[in-house]
Amino acid sequence: MTVDSTARATTRRSGVKRTTKKTASNTETATAATSEGQSTGAGAAAKSTKSAGKTGGTARKTPAKKAPAKKATAKKAPAKKAAAKAPAGKKRAAAVPGEADRPEMVQLLTPEGQRVEHPDYAIDLGAEELRGLYRDMVLTRRFDAEATALQRQGELGLWPSLLGQEAAQIGSGRALRPDDYVFPTYREHGVAWCRGVDPTQLLGMFRGVNNGGWDPNGNNFHLYTIVIGSQALHATGYAMGIAKDGADSAVIAYFGDGATSQGDVAESFTFAAVYNAPVVFFCQNNQWAISEPTERQTRVPLYQRAQGYGFPGVRVDGNDVLAVLAVTRAAVERARTGEGPMLVEAFTYRMGAHTTSDDPTRYRSDDERESWEAKDPILRLRAYLEAEQLVDDAFLASIDEESDTMAKRVRESIRTMPDPPAMSMFDNIYADGHALVDEERAQYAAYAASFADTDEEGR
Amino acid sequence: MAPGEKLPIAKAINSSLRKALENDPKVVVMGEDVGKLGGVFRVTDGLQKDFGEDRVIDTPLAESGIVGTAIGLALRGYRPVVEIQFDGFVFPAYDQIVTQLAKMHARALGKIKLPVVIRIPYAGGIGAVEHHSESPEALFAHVAGLKIVTPANSSDAYWMLQQAIECDDPVIFFEPKSRYWGKGEEVGRGIPAPLHRARVIREGTDLTIASYGPTVRTALQAADASAEEGRSVEVLDLRSISPIDFDTIQASVERTGRLVVVHEAPVFFGSGAEIAARITERCFYHLEAPVLRVGGFHAPYPPARVEEEYLPGLDRVLDGIDRAMAY
Ligand SMILES: Cc1ncc(C[n+]2csc(CCOP(=O)(O)OP(=O)(O)O)c2C)c(N)n1
Ligand SMILES: [Mg+2]
Asked: What's the EC number here (chain B) (predicted)?
């Protein structure tokens, strides 16, 4: 500053004190009333009907076979049938269908909790692993519900709920090794959980205290990306690097149905195919991109896009954690063994609003939501575990208790999460520094210090 | 809308779009979530219901696609009004805007026209996550072939959008989102000012503040605060960033001798830098102080909890006034 700052009054004439402000409640919709109508309660799992597994009369129970996932057959998975909208579970009756009536969507656990087989994708998990998947999903849902509640209480500015997508995220997240690398959107709270990212770290950017906030290399989990589709290219480039290094790690790029319209996603398919990059494109088709249904983005089932680029695409029941795990494992294995990219379309549903700022009653019906409620990912695994007597009341109670503890910890840590000091806005802009930043930082420090009521926060 | 009705900016824009759709069958509105939802800010609320899916179009999630196809529609005689959902999401379309939209008229030796309006809710102060609060106007103003305007009140929002849609050149229409749902102001009365004319919205003798979009309100507050301190501050609402009405600024600075430019965008290579350079050239012998700028820093738009410190609020504008007056 060229002028002596003492020439000025020493208190802020705006009368605005440097008090901690609550983040304004608005982002995606600045003023529109948000719908409270969607219950995001974590209690849904607890409401599980014990008989759920026995009500689905059409499903034939087949003993799990240990057919190893056939790598090369993934290409054949797309059914010859054109029907794009086969609802989950419609074709579950066939235990091991032949080529002709091979289901379009890979499913290993019906909505009623019946194990079924698929010719290309098999899974054989021990009781411990099955219980682990259940625990992951319940805790993730609970964390998500807690974050939604914290937004309502004004602790977060915004929250994008993953409600309904737990199986897609846990199933894929658990298919990875620590040395694999994840490129998420902004909704991958369940994948973050699998990577060991502390849930409270996900909240910073939604509280407005940072624009990312974790070390991506800490858990090989990249920062959330808000600009739709960008990260698919980053994932592909990272995978190209892995291939150049001769390593056998894989990369997984998450994106939504809406994102498939972006040029960046199309370009990432091209690059991945051309360079045979070890990347799995994991598209969570949750049927909606804010208010736009998938039909606004595509006229063919999304998994079929892959064919045109020269790599396999598979649709998996995104509410079936076993199927998602099996298919993602196969896709990751392809990547590791030099067979290149694969597209996995996890067919699922966004049970809640797009974000806490959204009001889905304006564009979709309750009926639709209800039909998907019947396919709940947690309920179906629980039904299976109960039918197989793999869980008892003590186990379920311990998960509830763990959820409560985790939720409490999340609440407490968010309430004590400090606002960043104003000066931090000049930090980390460049790795090697920048003269203009230094100048503006010094000017701002002098300006802030010139107020009589400057407190610690301003420094 | 009845002339003289009091509407907030968001509704004034809605009324203006409605009017344009009624008046000209070639006008189409397109963008992400503009149809059934009525846009994430509800600016296009009810338009699809009344004008149909052919004219109020929910597009795939692809900004380059939105602008690129709007160019094609314009080539076919339509007048597309596209919405980019937030400032930070215009960049996938930047290539189409800069390499194609801006230059096509010139490349065709004037034989074709590109009447495309790109509406962009911009600027901060709404407590949002990143990419939802930016002010990228300078990135477009640097490109010849684009016109750039930004209303600060409901009446201008209404008229300026009418004028932008009628304009045969591409217009980027920046909407100050933090002001969308402020108190209603009279809309649709009187004769609209020319689209690119700046307006003196408060007269003063000691210093001129040039502001636009979201900073106009702050500038008026600063003028009020200064009046209490015995300083007479003139406030300009520039309304247009490309072209800039330098004549109006010059006339004001010739009266006051001092100029402070206020915008939310970073000052480094910002519109304030251009104004400072031109006004220094035009008014050198009238200036009592260098032209000063108050605006964003050379930093990414910060997280919501510090945005108040980043934004040119009342105190920072008053600080700018103090500095200019101290010469
Ligand atoms: C480039 C870009 N354009 C627009 C937006 C605004 N936006 C945020 S989320 C979203 C919909 C995304 O839908 P989808 O890819 O299906 O993911 P989902 O939210 O359903 O998980 C939009 C349009 C954005 N973030 N980035
Ligand atoms: Mg989606």
From this structure: 1.2.4.4
